[in-house]
């Protein structure tokens, strides 16, 4: 081989190697697992709040049940589980029926903790919500007893989007995380659609080493996981895991994609999705038509190509909302919020309705809602 050609080949190999080394270093630098922040400022009611500061929590945190001082920890495997459950939605049960049935075991706000042992985890169950009281009634009827048998120290938070603007499931869940944390020192957050009821109580509403997808086998999908990375429906993240991914994106308006965005956040932060097996992870979904103001977001697929660059720019760290009302029912805490659809440029980009906050249908109480 002539000397010049050899030199050229050497130069080419060297520059290629340098290029790939730099590229690798660059990707690695962007992809380092983020440290969990020690302070996190969000905007709540136009005021900056550091939600990780202990001072945020009132001294009088509700502590339902007997004082836990003398009690031992609950067993890792709750002893009173039933396994497979019978679930039926074709009944005209009312919220009052459910209050009568499970209310005696609960503290105001849908709070519970076992009286015979100290729960292994403090779990906030967060439900993104608007105008689905009938579904909520079924959910409360079936899920409260499951959570009690699972011996959790838990609270149920229904995060109700005020007004008729484009629905934002993910932002409501971020708000639920903050509102629950302001109230009590939760260490695990289960995010659940209101229309999904587990039909096996061995599916523990707890957090594990990695973010957990719980609604693995839904009747609507013939009890088959529709795709490997799905993270929608019901999922659980510990406080640390949720902080590590900066929560959900706030900018998915309308239906679809926000759960896939979270799934990508998890993998970009070097975590995996854990799941129960497909028998334990069975769910029944309450059938329904598409809600108004929750049309598929036409930008959702494009947005998923941007997750990587948006994790730190869009999430808990940029969360801003206004609390309209906090109402304590015996069965749940209802937090009605303005998610500020009218000031988010992503809403108009999506072509969805910014909506108004003067349309107060979502502020109707369940009783009012059921009146003909
Ligand atoms: N949600 C509400 N109110 C709304 C929209 C959504 O409470 O107006 C909440 C609720 O917790 C629900 C979750 O957001 O379970 C997810 O929304 P969804 O149930 O609309 O999403 P899903 O993917 O259904 O289950 C999409 C519409 C399917 C139409 C099928 C027509 N046959
Ligand atoms: C995917 C959506 C997810 C959704 C999943 C299941 O296509 O947000 O379907 O939806 N992703 C995108 O649209 C990018 S379901 O059939 O349960 O309504 O969760």
What does this structure look like?
This protein starts with a helix and ends with a helix. Residues 359-363 have low confidence and may be disordered. The protein is globular, with a radius of gyration of 23 Å. It has helices at 3-30, 95-102, 133-149, 169-183, 239-244, 258-268, 300-304, 307-310, 345-350, 366-370, and strands at residues 41-44, 47-50, 111-112, 122-129, 153-161, 188-192, 196-198, 212-213, 217-218, 234-238, 282-285, 320-328, 333-338. Helices cover 28% and strands 17% of the residues. The protein has one domain (85-370): Alpha-Beta Complex (Spore Coat Polysaccharide Biosynthesis Protein SpsA, Chain A), CATH 3.90.550. Helix 2 packs parallel to helix 3. Strands 1, 2, 3, 4, 5, 6, 8, 10, 12 and 13 form a 10-stranded mixed beta sheet that branches. Strands 7-11-9 form a 3-stranded mixed beta sheet. It has 372 residues and is of the alpha/beta class. Residues 127-132, 167, 169, 193-195, 255, 289-291, 294 line the site of 6-aminohexyl-uridine-C1,5'-diphosphate.
Text of the CATH class: Alpha Beta
Q: Would you count the extended β strands for me? A: 13
Spatial shape: globular
Nearest-integer average pLDDT: 89
Write the layout of secondary structure elements.
Blueprint: H1 3-30, E1 41-44, E2 47-50, H2 95-102, E3 111-112, E4 122-129, H3 133-149, E5 153-161, H4 169-183, E6 188-192, E7 196-198, E8 212-213, E9 217-218, E10 234-238, H5 239-244, H6 258-268, E11 282-285, H7 300-304, H8 307-310, E12 320-328, E13 333-338, H9 345-350, H10 366-370
Parallel strand pairs: 1-12, 4-5, 4-6, 5-13, 9-11
Antiparallel strand pairs: 1-2, 3-5, 6-10, 7-11, 8-10, 12-13
Helix pairs in contact: 2-3
The structure holds 6-aminohexyl-uridine-C1,5'-diphosphate and 2-acetamido-2-deoxy-6-O-sulfo-beta-D-glucopyranose (NGS).
């Amino acid at each position: 081989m002539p000397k010049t050609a050899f030199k050229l080949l050497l130069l080419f190999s060297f520059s290629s190697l340098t290029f790939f080394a730099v590229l690798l270093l660059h990707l690695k630098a962007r992809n380092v697992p983020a440290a969990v922040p020690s302070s996190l400022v969000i905007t709540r009611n136009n005021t900056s709040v550091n939600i990780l500061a202990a001072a945020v929590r009132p001294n009088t945190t509700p502590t339902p049940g007997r004082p836990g001082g003398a009690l031992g920890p609950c067993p890792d495997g709750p002893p009173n589980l039933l396994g497979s459950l019978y679930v039926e939605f074709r009944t005209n049960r009312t919220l009052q029926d459910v209050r009568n049935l499970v209310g005696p075991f609960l503290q105001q706000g849908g709070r519970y903790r076992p009286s015979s042992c100290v729960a292994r985890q403090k779990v906030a169950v967060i439900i993104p919500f608007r105008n689905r009281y009938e579904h909520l009634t079924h959910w409360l009827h079936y899920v409260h007893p499951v959570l009690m048998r699972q011996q959790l120290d838990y609270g149920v938070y229904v995060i109700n989007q005020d007004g008729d603007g484009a629905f934002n499931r993910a932002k409501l869940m971020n708000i639920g995380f903050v509102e629950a944390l302001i109230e009590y020192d939760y260490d695990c957050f289960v995010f659940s659609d209101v229309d999904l009821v587990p039909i096996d109580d061995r599916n523990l509403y707890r957090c594990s080493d990695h973010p957990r997808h719980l609604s693995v086998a839904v009747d609507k999908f013939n009890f088959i996981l529709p795709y490997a990375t799905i993270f929608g429906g019901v999922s659980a993240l510990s406080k640390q895991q949720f902080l590590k991914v900066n929560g959900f994106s706030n900018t998915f308006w309308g239906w679809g994609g926000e759960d896939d965005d979270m799934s990508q956040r998890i993998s970009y932060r070097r975590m995996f999705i854990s799941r129960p097996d497909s028998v334990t992870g069975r769910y029944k979904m309450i059938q329904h038509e598409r809600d108004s103001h929750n049309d598929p977001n036409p930008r959702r697929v494009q947005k998923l190509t941007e997750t990587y660059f948006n994790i730190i720019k869009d999430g808990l760290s940029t969360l801003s909302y206004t609390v309209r009302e906090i109402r304590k029912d015996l069965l749940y805490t209802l937090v009605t919020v303005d998610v500020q659809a009218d000031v988010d440029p992503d809403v108009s980009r999506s072509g969805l309705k910014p909506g108004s906050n003067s349309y107060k249908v979502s502020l109707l109480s369940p009783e009012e809602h059921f009146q003909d």
